[in-house]
Amino acid sequence: MEHRHLGQSGLMVSEVTYGNWLTHGELVDRDQAVACIRAALDAGVTTFDTADVYARGAAEELLGTALGGVRRSSLVIASKVCLPTGDGPNDRGLSRKHIMESCEASLRRLRTDYLDLYQAHRFDETTPLEETLVAFDDLVRQGKVLYLGVSEWTATQIESALTVIRELGLRSRIVSNQPQYNMLWRVIEPEVVPLCLREGIGQLAFQPLAQGVLTGKYRPGQEPPDGSRGKAGGRAPAFIGRVLGPRLLEQVQDLLPVAAECGLSAAQLAIAWVLRQPGVSSVVAGATRPEQVTENASASGRTIDEAVLKRVDEILGDLVDRDPAKTARMMAVKPDWARSASASG
């Protein structure tokens, strides 16, 4: 496992970060989830990403348990705050109250005294940006958080935050952005990436496999395979349904020989592709089985050349979405290729 600086900060993160989004606490039983985390550790993964909203805290609890006994200073543990964690009016957003209370709850569930990285899970239009950033800065001053990041913010939102930080003279700064980013979904490239490169903010790219679609396991005209997210319960099928479509699945099959020529699996090609992009510090990948963790981690350090990048672009063609307006609407808007695929059955 190779490591990179998180943006222009001094923090080193593993090229592959282990994420426990829909898998832990919802789709995978406890023993299997712990086995996946242990497989990540065995593969040299040192960076683990979670959030308070994942399975209403159960994901953080499981991660804290599974990492018990591991030397804390050898790990980078990241969590997030903003999305609803309860039914009360203050159980969401980026108010000082919610940030402070959520941080304490995350620390308790994760069984740690501090978070290496604390991220604003979304932008909060209802709270003054100054209030949010001062609260984050106070957590850094208190030693409960070491570094700050954001997730799925637009370039304008990130730039506004940087301006406030400078105007208020806050000590802490934003070192990372966590966007959805993969071969198909490239909406951060026109605006977010150039700003982050200029400001020294690294990308922690999640969904590098497009919810498993880029592994090639979903085949045209066939039911999702048993054990896949597309066949699972909970929220996973709804997310997978956004990206499944006959034309897309046919094009993904054409990526398989490209991966084979590189000596990679389709999943490894997808991860290596993201790691090849400017400004990417790490790829956040989850898994439902330990062998998937090992396969994903093995993409670290694998290089692909310009000719391969060109072939990927030629194969996917107009299925690639680069509309920057969709950065802030990722959860609500289908990519064009998913919408057209759904319309065609």
Automatic annotation (TrEMBL):
S-adenosyl-L-methionine as UniProt keyword: no
GO cellular component: cytosol
A Pfam family this chain is assigned to: Aldo_ket_red
Domain NADP-dependent oxidoreductase as annotated: residue spans: 16-315
Molecular functions per Gene Ontology: oxidoreductase activity
Coiled coil stretches, renumbered: none
Stored CDD domains: Aldo_ket_red_shaker-like
Superkingdom of source: Bacteria
Extent of the signal sequence: none
Key words of the record: NADP, Oxidoreductase
UniProt key word ATP-binding: no
Matching PANTHER family: HYPERKINETIC, ISOFORM M
UniProt family annotation: Belongs to the shaker potassium channel beta subunit family.
Record-given protein name: Aryl-alcohol dehydrogenase-like predicted oxidoreductase
Organism whose genome encodes this protein: Planomonospora venezuelensis
Lineage of the species this protein comes from: Bacteria, Bacillati, Actinomycetota, Actinomycetes, Streptosporangiales
